[in-house]
Each structure stands twice: as C-alpha cells, then as structure tokens.
Specification:
By secondary structure, the protein is mainly beta. It has helices at 14-17, 22-29, and strands at 4-9, 30-31, 39-45, 51-56, 62-63, 79-85, 90-94, 97-101, 106-109, 116-120, 128-134, 142-144, 150-154, 163-169, 180-186, 192-193, 197-199, 203-210, 218-224, 227-233, 237-241, 248-251, 256-263, 272-274. The protein has a single domain, classed as Jelly Rolls, CATH 2.60.120.10. It contains two helices and 24 strands.
Length: 280
C-alpha cells in the first residue's frame, strides 16, 4: 500500500508573482492537508530543492520513502531531514535505532540513513512536521528538546510582537549541511511574527502555522517589500517563501509556528531588514 503522496511546486519569478491573484498565490505557495492519518504528505519545491511535509501515523508505522523526483533508492541517499513533532508522542526508527519524540521536540537525521519510519507511541496521534534539503556530507542523528533549544527573545509587547525564537536544528546546536529549523512562540497579547520583516537572498524559508483555534486564522504576508501580498492561513497549514520574498504574519489570536530554511549559508543573522514604515 502506498502511504506517501507528493506534489511538485516550480519556482516563480518575482515579476510574474506581481500578476498573481489570491487563487494562484495559494496554489503555488500554500501547503494544506499535511497531516492526513495513515499518510505522509510531501511538497517538493523548486526553491533550494526543499521538501515540506507531514507524517501522521495511524495503526501501522509509516515508512519514509523516496519519491520519483529524487531519482534515488531511498529518501536520505542525498538528503538530510529535520522533524518536529506537534502532536502526541512519536516513535522514530532510523536503521533499527528507536528514538522517542515528544510534543515540540525536534530530530535531525543526516544523509545516508536508509530506513526511516514514524509511529505513534501514545494515545494522541503524532503529527510529525518534516523539512528536508539536499546534503553533501553525513552528520550524526541528534534530538533537541524545547528546553535544549537556543532561545532568543525578540520584539516588544507594545508592538504586539514579543516572542521567543527557539532555534533547534541550527549550527550552534546541530551539525547540518544546510537545513535549519526552529519554533517560535508568543507572549500573551502578541500576534505579529517576524516584525520588522526581512528577506534573505541566500536561502529560502517555509513556515508551518499551528495551535490556531478553529475560529481563528493568520494573515501571512509575502512578496517583495515594496510589493507585498497576503493570504489567509489556517491551523496546520504551511507557506513556502522564496528567497526574494519577505515572510511575516499576524494572527487573529495566539498561535505558534515552525520555521525551516535551506540555502547557501548557515548564518542565522544573514538578513536584509525592512522597517514597517518602508513596506508597501
């Protein structure tokens, strides 16, 4: 039985993006239905060959399988993988070694591991958010809990953007080729993320929004700083952000989000910042 579903997303030129209506922006950049029980759902993007995905095990473990665009025998033959669990306790098996992954814990799996599978290990179903990028070197498996993350406080309550940026799979914590991931949480009353906004032409980024109640939503902003666009995002949906695009959002209520990046450097601070007064 096939448990893996995938789609391809091709890269978009920023000039073409200016002509997109809401439907086309959502079609090219919004990722929905990531956590379907009993399946792995993947989007293979033309930006740095990045993969955004979700694994939602049911009664049986889910094997991580290579998809046809990779032209590889197994998923991690030439790739690395980051996993962050936003659901119940999971069990990740890598070449026979079993690793438990609790809610909001991260796992890095380096290139070269042949057999990876995901399973539930508790009453609540696990929801494993996946990011993957091409790799050129093997690095060890490493688990990072939220308590072990490199936490940075940013923003201010008076600007409704006070938040904690938990850097989990980053070069100060984990050896990787190019993949970086983390989880951002907010203080009470703050709803703006990544404000002031920035771009980074050296790498792309993807956001997964979660913890959004059914009656609420997040307005995600993208595009070039002088030509911004927006789409509305609901719980457990992701947005792919090209290297030329800013990425920011504001919620109608509290939420959390996972950010993942890949590109030509591992310098987290490599950003071109734009103040709110500069945006159009």
């Amino acid at each position: 039985m096939i448990h893996t579903r995938f789609t391809l997303r091709h890269a978009v030129h920023p000039d073409d993006f200016l002509t997109y209506d809401t439907r086309r922006i959502r079609e090219h950049f919004l990722v929905q239905h990531l956590f379907e029980p009993g399946n792995i759902s993947l989007v293979y993007a033309g930006y740095d060959r990045f993969v955004v995905g979700g694994a939602c095990p049911a009664a049986e473990p889910l094997p991580l399988e290579a998809i046809p665009p990779f032209r590889s025998q197994y998923f991690l033959e030439r790739r690395e993988l980051g996993v962050i669990n936003i659901g119940g306790t999971a069990r990740v098996t890598v070449d026979g070694s079993v690793i438990g992954l609790n809610h909001r814990e991260a796992l890095y799996i380096g290139m070269g591991h042949k057999e990876v599978s995901f399973a539930n290990a508790g009453r609540e179903p696990a929801k494993l958010y996946l990011n993957s990028a091409p790799a050129h070197k093997e690095f060890p498996i490493k688990k990072v809990t939220l308590a072990e993350a490199e936490a940075t406080e940013a923003g201010d309550p008076t600007s409704a953007n006070a938040r904690t940026i938990n850097k989990m799979i980053v070069n100060s914590k984990v050896d990787t080729c190019q993949l970086q991931m983390g989880l951002t949480t907010f203080r009470a009353g703050s709803v703006w993320n990544t404000m002031p906004v920035h771009t980074h032409g050296r790498r792309m980024e993807a956001y997964l929004y979660f913890g959004i109640s059914g009656s609420q939503a997040v307005c995600h902003f993208m595009g070039q700083p002088l030509e911004t666009r927006h789409i509305w995002v609901h719980n457990e949906e992701a947005v792919i952000s090209p290297d030329w695009s800013l990425h920011s959002g504001v919620g109608t209520a509290s939420y959390s989000f996972i950010w993942g990046m890949a590109g030509e450097n591992l310098d987290y601070g490599d950003m071109d910042v734009f103040q709110p007064t500069e945006l159009k």
